[in-house]
Design a protein that fits this description.
The protein is an alpha/beta fold. The protein contains ten helices and eight strands.
């Protein structure tokens, strides 16, 4: 493990594999290096071609945190890592981490291309939107000493897990791990903003993104995520959509690593299904 220091003094912990042009992986909500082994597996598989970085987003794992939170601080965290890696970089984001990657590219970070896995946009009525006070309720749970309730709200309102299933999850050994980073769930809520409201994506939100973008989804994932991925690919002139057979909201390193290698080495987004 190594670290970089973000602009506001936050320590960002990371691991890296291989040599070559940098490829940086951003986790989605609740994930970090200790609980998501896929990033390390991708790093090992791509080590012959790239220098792959996986980091703990602020407030998770071995990274520190600095209040107050703002999405701009997470963009600065990524900027510090890109600067350490040697700009410019390819950036890959999982789920809400994909949306953070979009924000970072729109903000002008030295990113050469974006690969995005199932950004969780809700752009129609195919599933309930997030409650309008979602972030405020998350913050209130944490402030009130109820991190488990924040995790439950995320699971039911954002991830679509049933309340009965969450009741069972509360008894599982991994639940305290989720509670430990419950305060960061609201960070991802702020990153998503109004993009899980059931309305079409704002047409100018990422208009500054001009690099090649590869938007990926599994064919066996939630239908609303396929709709959201298609909406983003249609919105961005430089984007192409790729559907990976049999994959769900998660995938494996054996599937992801070749897709990332092909995207970077081709120099442009692969023309998948639109």
């Amino acid at each position: 493990m190594r670290t970089v220091t973000s602009k506001d003094g936050t320590t960002i912990a990371f691991e890296a594999w291989g040599d070559g042009q940098p490829l940086i992986i951003i986790d989605g909500a609740t994930a970090h290096r200790a609980v998501n082994p896929i990033n390390a597996e991708v790093g090992a598989l791509l080590a012959g071609d790239f220098r792959v970085y996986a980091y703990d987003r602020r407030g998770r794992g071995d990274s520190t945190d600095t209040a107050p939170y703002a999405v701009e601080r997470e963009i600065e965290d990524l900027a510090a890592l890109i600067d350490h890696a040697g700009a410019p970089a390819t950036v890959f984001g999982w789920s809400s981490g994909a949306v953070l990657a979009l924000h970072a590219a729109a903000a002008g970070l030295p990113i050469t291309r974006l690969a995005l896995w199932e950004p969780p946009f809700v752009v129609d009525g195919s599933r309930p939107p997030l409650p309008p006070d979602y972030v405020e309720r998350l913050d209130a749970c944490v402030a009130g000493g109820r991190p488990g309730d924040a995790v439950e709200l995320f699971m039911t309102a954002a991830a679509g897990v049933s309340a009965d299933d969450v009741a069972g999850m509360r008894q599982a050994p991994f639940w305290p791990v989720l509670e430990a980073i419950a305060h960061t769930i609201a960070y991802d809520g702020r990153i998503m903003g109004d993009t899980m409201s059931g309305a079409p994506l704002p047409r100018d939100r990422w208009s500054a993104v001009t690099v090649p973008v590869k938007v990926m989804h599994g064919t066996d994932t939630f239908p609303w995520m396929i709709t959201g991925a298609r909406a983003l690919a249609e919105l961005l002139p430089t984007a192409a959509l790729e559907a990976l057979p049999g994959e769900q909201h998660g995938t494996t390193a054996d599937v992801l690593a070749p897709a990332l290698r092909q995207f970077v080495q081709s120099g442009q987004a692969h023309a998948g299904t639109r």
